[in-house]
Write a structure and sequence with these properties.
Elements lengths: L12 H10 L5 H21 L5 H12 L5 H16 L6 H7 L5 H11 L4 E2 L6 E2 L13 E2 L21
Antiparallel strand pairs: 1-2, 1-3
Helix pairs in contact: 3-6
Amino acid sequence: MDALLCCPRDPGARDFLQILTRSGFLAVTRANQILRRIRDLLRTRVAEGTRRRSEDGALGRLALDRGWLSVEALEEAVLEQAQLRRNGLRFRIGEVLVRRGVLSGVQVRLLLDIQGRLARTCADCGRVAVVPGPCGICGQTLSLSPALGPYSSDGEFSQDLVAST
């Protein structure tokens, strides 16, 4: 319990797992497995939530309309996304396009904002919303989230505690 006193004000899962590994309560390999599992579950939940597959096309069409990518690049990204889904990984099309280097994170953020799907978070209470303005819980101004998707948590789980060897 003393180890938790050294945590940041609002520790995330990575912080908590690092404390458990440093304290010897959890092996690093197991902590990394937990992080990967949480990441995959978050992506699956986002993919199966209120989103529809047609929204991938909407983001792609918006990028095509702006001349930011070719039809071929979009088709390749959609095929890669389908392969990832068959493997149980739920990546949004914007994530695939950024990973492939076709679009930048700034471009995807702009497209998500146009769609009304850009994530915003409250620094005080942690609420996540896609609507700009004040937080519906505590009234503080919502700021842009650090990740591409509608949930900002994914960035916390994108790296292992210790790189695999």
